[in-house]
Specification:
five-stranded antiparallel sheet, 235 residues, globular
């Protein structure tokens, strides 16, 4: 636990100095040594909605929350819009439908974790991963900011649509979470993943509702109630 607190502090400081960009907070989670989990409801089926409620629930079960972010888009009842796999069990199915809004801006994508580590993939690629088995967690969102190093074709340079946004990419066994600290457009957000963090595939998790919890930073954002939550927890 002490190791993770030090890791988060070092990573945050390192990214700030290397990137020289105060617009972003970056947290790297090495899944060979840290446990990343996906959360939505407590034992009674009530959505957590907030980091402090998740933290309290984990403490009641003898565990600790070290880091968390909102993990994708959700309906009015807080259920996920797309795929939701928790502890190896699929609780919401893959959504390949067409529709309005960021989630349906194709291609969209899936962030998943298997025994081989974390991955960001295009949504239509997920069934092949599911057939192989071993998917421990997965959450679907959209758009896919980067695919094989290329920006999503709908992202507009100099767009005036600027929001607080968060997203994720994966390099090797490390999941890299990014939170913008000032409003940013999709295009600049994607460029940060590609040109600064050197990610080839990156997924947008959400905007406006984006929030971050960090025990190391003494930070627990609350913007509005959340649906799915990704968190680093003690075993």
């Amino acid at each position: 636990m002490r190791k993770l607190l030090l890791l988060l502090a070092v990573v945050l400081a390192s990214c700030a100095s290397v990137a020289a960009d105060p617009r972003y907070t970056v947290v790297k989670v090495d899944l060979r040594t840290e446990k990343l989990a996906l959360f939505l409801n407590d034992d009674t089926g009530v959505a957590f909605k907030r980091f402090d409620r998740l933290d309290a629930w984990l403490k009641a079960h003898g565990r600790q929350l070290f880091f968390a972010v909102n993990a994708g888009m959700y309906h009015a009842d807080f259920s996920p819009v797309g795929l939701f796999v928790r502890d190896g069990r699929e609780e919401a199915s893959l959504n390949l439908a067409s529709g309005a809004g960021n989630f349906f801006l194709k291609p969209n994508g899936v962030f998943l974790v298997t025994d081989d580590g974390p991955r960001v993939i295009e949504s239509s690629e997920y069934p092949a991963f599911a057939k192989r088995g071993g998917v421990r967690l997965a959450t679907q969102s959209g758009p896919l900011l980067l695919r094989h190093g290329a920006l999503h074709p709908a992202l507009i340079p100099n767009s005036d649509s600027r929001k607080i946004r968060n997203g994720v990419c994966a390099i090797g066994h490390t999941a890299i979470f990014v939170m913008s600290e000032t409003p940013v457009n999709f295009h600049d957000f994607a460029l940060y993943f590609r040109d600064v963090l050197h990610c080839r595939d990156a997924l947008y998790l959400d905007g406006t509702v984006s929030a971050l919890y960090s025990k190391a930073l003494g930070r627990s954002d609350f913007v509005r109630d959340l649906g799915p939550i990704l968190g680093v927890v003690s075993p």
